[in-house]
Amino acid sequence: MTFFHSLRWKLIGSYLLLVAAVLIAVVVLTRYTVSTIFATYQENSLVRDAGQFAHVFGQDYNSTHDWHQIAPAFSMSTQFDRNDIWILNMQGAPVLTQPPNAPANERPTMAMLRSVLHGQVATGQINGLLGRPRRVWAAVPLRANDTIIGAVFIVAAPETALPTGPAYAFPFRLLQTTADFVTDVEHRLALIGVIVGILAIGLGVWLARSITDPIQDLRGAVGHIAAGDLTQRVRVRSRDEVGGLAADINRMAERLEADVNELHAQEELRRDLVANVSHDLATPLTGIQGFTEALMDGMVGSESERRELYSNINREVHRLRRLVGDLQDLSSLENGMGHIQPQAMHLEELLEEALGVEHVEAAERGVTLVREIPADLPLVLADDGRITQVLLNLLDNALRFTPSGGTITLSARAVERSVEVTVADTGTGIPADELPHIFERFYRVDRSRSRETGGGGLGLAIVKAIVQAHGGHVAATSVVGEGTQMRFTLPRFQDAAVPALPSARARYLRRRGVATPVAAE
Questions:
Q1: How far apart, in whole angstroms, are the C-alpha atoms of residue 48 and residue 155?
Q2: Which residues lie closer than 8 Å to 362 by C-beta, 6 or more apart?
Q3: Does the N terminus or the C terminus of the chain have fewer Cβ atoms within 10 A?
Q4: What pLDDT, on a 0 to 100 scale, did the predictor assign at position 419?
Q5: Does residue 517 have a cis peptide bond before it, meaning omega lies within 30 degrees of 0?
Q6: Taking 80 as the threshold, does the pLDDT of residue 435 lie above it?
Q7: What gap in Å lies between CA 40 and CA 183, rounded to an integer?
């Protein structure tokens, strides 16, 4: 029973019921139309024949005034006619009949002849005897010298109707009955209905399958997706509503798969973050604990050793504060609550000062700093303190991984509605599989580095957060053994009015206080 309750069989059943209803309506209407048209045809044919008889026998009677003399000609003229024919006088009495032994009870009544005897043509139908079909009749006036002398009355015999056989010598043909003709039409319609029904079944099955097969595919795919198989996709069979639904389900599955993968990646990052933060916090705390225990146990005898321990404790405390500060800074920037105060400024001043800050360390490492800064850079809309933080992080990061004798190039150029800044080094480079992750929190390309020399892994994440807070973009390209390029963009400032900035010396001191160059590749 479930099989016949399926959508496919409902569609097929509905289609077949519709076809059956249409066929029944066509049969009924065709039967009625054919019967009506055929009856009208019979009436017109009988009126025409009756008129011919009235014309011929009216002239003969006008010549002889004797019906007995006309009888032979009447019998000869009507011997091949299958209809019943009466010639009646003004009193409605038959004077000539065909066939000669026609029953008296089939004779037309005066009610049927009254209008004819007054010069009109009359038609109608009478019930046949012994269950025989209804018969069409027609009556026309019979005139002699334009005087009505009676009527010609013709009744279509049960076996007379449309011409079907060959013409006889007399211009009247053998006809079939109305019932036979209508029955023949019904049989032909029934045959056509059977053929159309078979075709309708085939077409209905094909149409039902064209609708239900894609739905079955959708059902199967949705079942797999519900079971957790997000790689399942639906084959799009058409461009109709079902095909559109299949495409929507595929897009939904792709989005769900991407979201689940993102959730897995976020969960992995969360675990890494907890592990890294725990390790970064544990390292200085372990050092502080060891130094304080040494002081408490009296293991340090000289004043100089105690001062060294105090200095080590202070250094580890600063490391803790710096790590906590970086985490707070990154969190506030990513949540949109970072302290960003953009204003119009000349970017080349910030670039020159960043190079000046890193010049001493670069000289100590044997690294050459190169500037490629055009004098006509457009104004940018940026927070000078935050952008200085970005520049120092990137330059410090490049210095950590550029060997002695290498080069770091700081360049800038105008691109469309932005200004692009690039820090390029000739360092060790970053492997291609590591490059997409370098802006993630606590990510380190070289995990064997100590956290003292390699940084805490937050510098590039802070760079990305600051640049995105300005509406810019950050990216990196690298070739192992050749070097790395870090690029970021800042929006241009369209207004020509530039507010006054603090002195270069004041900005330099302030930036050195807020900059946290603890990036790591």
A1: 13
A2: 368, 369, 399, 408
A3: N
A4: 94
A5: no
A6: yes
A7: 18
